[in-house]
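Example 4.3 (complexes with small molecules)
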Amino acid sequence: MPIGIDWGGTSIKAAIVDGAAVRGFARIETSGEPAAILDAIAGLVRVLDPRTESVGVAIPGEVRPDGRCWRLPNVPGFEDVNIGAELHARLNLPIGVENDATAAALAERLYGWGNQYGSFLLVTLGTGIGGGLVLDGHVRRGTGGFAGEIGHVLVESGEQAWTCGCGKRGCMEAYAGIAGLLRKYAAVKGSDSLFGTKRGSDPLSAASATEEEGTKRGFDPFPRTIKEIADADDAGTQAVWQQLGWALGTGLGVINNVLDLDAIVFTGGVANSLSRFEALIRKAMQARAFAPPLAQLPLLTSRLGEQAGVIGAAHLPAAK
Ligand SMILES: [Zn+2]
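Answer. The structure with zinc ion bound is encoded below.
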């Protein structure tokens, strides 16, 4: 059976995959030089199943047509590294390597909503906003491996637009990624009323500064995760859902004007709360829709959940 590797920013998960089922599982932390990380992945494969038939790797970055990695934003040193060739040299097995959201979209096409919908966008909600595109039953990786990278669609213009991790302003990810949502929460809650910092200071730095301060003084710190924001269920939480729905709906409205998809499928930790902001996404999509049907498509959560990465990865070599 093939092995699927889901390479996150801080850990690498590996699993023996049988169709849509996960038979064996292991996880290691990612750190060190690229060669050491690649050795560790090869070691993980040998430990899980030394006789495996093939290995697929879902990476937090993009793969060029020649197999070289564009870059891994959260794992330094992988610019231009051919991960597939490096692992083949270590394991002498067929290796597939693909962007993680695109690999998850492959899993969804094979074993999830792909059974009902031929053309859909898989949207990953987390630290960043990623995506994988399936058109007429085929996963599209794009010429340069960037197809479905939806996080950097413009949703706000001008000097006041929030800066994105990519360096540009006004991207969907700047508002709908975790950092943007935490920033919104901190801004609405007004860090001054809780911890005595000056109103008008940068909400992001205020949130981190006051967390230390708050802990020292015995106050509850600000929420640090979307689950904590959801659990708080206060005015800040409502503002976060508003911002998330607006940013996603605005960006996806633009995208669906171009693609006219059958459905949009959300995955990632934030997707567990989809019912809280689904109507807000649709409202913003309606505002952007060229024609009403473009905002009426189903908005769904992934059927595969957290396992989509390893499942999609494992099927990469056969899907080539
Ligand atoms: Zn961006």
